[in-house]
Write a structure and sequence with these properties.
Pfam families: Alpha-amylase, CBM_48, ISOA1-3_C
InterPro entries: GH, GH13_cat_dom, GlgX_Isoamylase_N_E_set, Glyco_hydro_13_N, Glyco_hydro_b, Glycogen_debranch_GlgX, Ig-like_fold, Ig_E-set
Shape: elongated
Keywords: Glycosidase, Hydrolase, Transit peptide
Family: Belongs to the glycosyl hydrolase 13 family.
Protein name: Glycogen debranching enzyme
Oligomer: single chain
Strand content: 15-25%
Helix content: 10-25%
Length: about 675
């Protein structure tokens, strides 16, 4: 800021541009309006001006004036709207009124504003981590909800600083990465009118308006959001934990034709959004949110790449998960492009080559690309894994062949295209849907609290309430539900690929059957830290199974299994079984059982023998014989609270030829020298 500040914004059709300067974030009017001269302050599409001796902390907006031409060009220029700088790195939404920005008239008193701040942050030698995804255990979490509950006990609930206080908990859990739900500044007022009338807000944050600015609502001091975010990143890195951001590049908070004018609509509506071919006043919507970003327009591609580079270079994040990423695969005509410029630019960027890139490989208009997302380095949320494992654990018959494929890293989807097990992000729950507790407690969604008459949210949940819908005093049902939760966690951690755990599942958190809590910034969504004690049995089981995974490189292979010996081993890398050795029930439409023997990947790593019984009766499984070695019980989901035995406490089985696995149970054996 020495000497002044250079301002620059893009607008193709603007004929006049004004820069509004405000003394503070609550100033109703600018203290100065600078009118830019197009002969001096415009170069091609870009308007720019250097302001000398500008005080640090000044707030600002733009006004763009010119001829709107909705039907022919799609231009929505409106000189009455105070516009947010799309490149702002610190913003204030304290005065924001979405309704005022959605109707005709001046909204200067209630617009979102950018702020000019010096950037001299001391990173203290911090750098982005590089933990290979093949070794990762990802934990999806919401920044605000993780510590906002009164039970969190942190000094600043619901903030980046609050999370810092809970890093020891995450470290002890054993996760390697947190995946933060949207932290780029978003519009909390973006909810349907009936929902807003209930006093609810956009809690999840999938309504971005500022792609370079952290959300001020997650900061202790809104003006320090950028540095408070960096403090959190540094703290995570010191603990050896990477940070992945959930980014929403598919649409913006401006919505459709009736939505607010924040920035893009006025500055470059015809550039930033997909518009109807014949009537450019209408938006083509592939996201279900009113608009779709025109990601493969050259200027938009550059804007999005610059945003990613900013978060890696200036904010030190370790990767990104792209919401509705298939929308980014659509060309300017709306049709899917396998060689979509923005996706390949992300994949091939030298500056992003160590950043993890994860796609939610579908959009809201029917484009489903799981297993076929453009590129090679992209990992994908494996929705097929989720659905198959849910069906198997609830007891659906005839799935064992596909279950084996999913457990082995979904080679049918990835290997033929030269991809790897780490391309599959395995999960059974995520923010969008039931929690693990609710997955085993409800057959149907219960979203009445959202104000949409239970029409919102998924109906295809593949859940099982274990005999009673919702809360119950039936002790047997309660035991079965907790056992089913242990089964899900065990299968997830025993699968090739990258496991992702939903925050709160490790303490059996419930949302009372609501599978779409996007608008519930309250105790329905928040992490209740009292559950750490009341459901400690679940927490300890999850910790122990994560630890088992992380001590077995054979569960974290970076290449697909072959069924043949490798790395100097005498055993095949994997052998499949049913209740009888070497006889898996691939073609039995009634089967609910599966077993496999997994050889060690490195020297001295003990083989594992894993048995799944999702039937309602006990099954006896034959055990393989390995010369000079015996089997020891490592995991059993059947006992109260589950059983995970560390290596130093294991003992050889008294009957090494067979093992009885109870109904709805998972058992893991580790091989030890006899």
């Amino acid at each position: 800021m020495d000497g002044g500040v250079n301002f620059c914004v893009l607008s193709r059709y603007a004929e006049r541009m004004q820069l509004l300067l405000f003394e503070c974030e609550e100033s109703p009017d600018p203290y100065e309006v600078i009118r830019l001269d197009p002969r001096v302050n415009r170069t091609f599409f870009f308007w720019h001006i250097f302001v000398e001796n500008l005080p640090e902390g000044t707030f600002y907006n733009w006004r763009a004036d010119g001829r709107a031409d909705l039907r022919r060009t799609g231009s929505r220029l409106d000189v009455e709207k105070a516009l947010l700088d799309p490149w702002a790195t610190t913003i204030s939404d304290r005065l924001w009124d979405r309704a005022a920005a959605s109707r005709p008239g001046d909204n200067v008193e209630t617009a979102i504003r950018g702020q000019v701040l010096r950037d001299d942050y001391d990173w203290e030698d911090d750098k982005p981590l590089f933990i290979p995804l093949s070794q990762a255990v990802i934990y999806e979490m919401h920044v605000g909800g993780f510590t906002r509950h009164p039970s969190s006990g942190v000094a600043h609930p619901g903030t980046f600083a609050g999370i810092v206080e809970k890093i020891p908990y995450l470290k002890e859990l054993g996760i390697t990465h947190v995946e933060l739900m949207p932290v780029m500044a978003f519009d909390a007022q973006d909810v349907p009118p009936k929902t807003a009338g209930l006093g609810l807000e956009n809690y999840w944050g999938y309504s971005t308006h500022s792609f370079f600015a952290p959300h001020p609502g997650f900061a202790v001091s809104a003006g320090q959001a950028r540095d408070e975010f960096r403090d959190m990143i540094k703290a995570f890195h010191r603990a050896g934990i990477g940070v992945i951001l959930d980014v929403v590049f598919n649409h913006t908070a401006e919505g459709g034709a009736g939505g607010p004018v924040i920035s893009f609509k006025a500055l470059g509506n015809e550039i930033f959004y997909h518009l109807d071919f014949e009537d450019r006043s209408k938006y083509r919507d592939y996201t279900g949110c009113g608009n779709t970003m025109n990601c493969n327009h050259p200027l938009v591609t550059r804007f999005l790449i610059d945003a990613l580079l900013y978060w890696v270079r200036r904010m030190h994040v370790d990767g990104f998960r792209f919401d509705l990423a298939s929308a980014l695969a659509r060309g300017e005509d709306g049709n899917p492009q396998y060689h979509a410029p923005v996706l390949w630019a992300i994949e091939l960027s030298p500056s992003l080559n160590r950043a993890h890139i994860i796609a939610e490989a579908w959009d809201a208009a029917g484009l489903y690309q799981v297993g076929d997302f453009p590129g090679y380095r992209w990992s994908e949320w494996n929705g097929r894994y989720r659905d198959v494992i849910r069906g198997f654990v609830r007891g659906d018959p005839g799935l064992v062949s596909e279950v084996a494929t999913r457990l082995a890293g979904s080679s049918d989807m990835y290997e033929g295209r030269g991809r790897l097990p780490m391309n599959s992000i395995n999960f059974v729950t995520c923010h969008d849907g039931f929690t693990l507790c609710d997955l085993v407690s409800y057959d149907h969604k219960h979203n009445e609290a959202n104000g949409e008459d239970n029409r919102d949210g998924h109906d295809h949940n593949l859940s099982w309430n274990c005999g009673c819908e919702g809360p119950t005093d039936d002790a047997e049902i309660q035991r079965l539900r907790r056992r089913q939760a242990r089964n899900f966690i065990s299968i997830l951690m025993l699968s090739q690929g990258v496991p992702m755990l939903l925050s709160g599942d490790e303490v059996f958190r419930t949302k009372r059957g609501n599978n779409n809590t996007y608008c519930q910034n309250n105790e329905l969504s928040w992490f209740d830290w009292g559950l750490v004690d009341s459901n400690r049995d679940v927490l300890e089981f999850v910790r122990a199974v994560i630890a088992l995974r992380r001590r077995h490189p054979a569960l974290m292979r970076d290449r697909f299994l072959t069924g043949k010996p490798e790395y100097g081993q005498t055993l095949p890398d994997i052998t499949w079984h049913g209740t009888r050795l070497d006889k898996p029930d691939w073609d039995d439409p009634t089967s609910r059982v599966l077993a496999f023997t997994l050889a060690g990947k490195i020297e001295d790593e003990p083989p594992l023998h894993v048995m799944f019984n999702m039937d309602s009766v006990v099954h006896d499984f034959e055990l393989p014989v390995i010369a000079g070695r015996g089997w020891c019980l490592a995991v059993d989901t059947q006992p109260e609270g589950g059983l995970v035995v560390p290596p130093e406490a294991q003992h050889p089985l008294s009957q090494p030829e067979r093992f009885a696995v109870g109904a709805h149970g998972v058992v893991v054996l580790e091989s030890r020298p006899a």
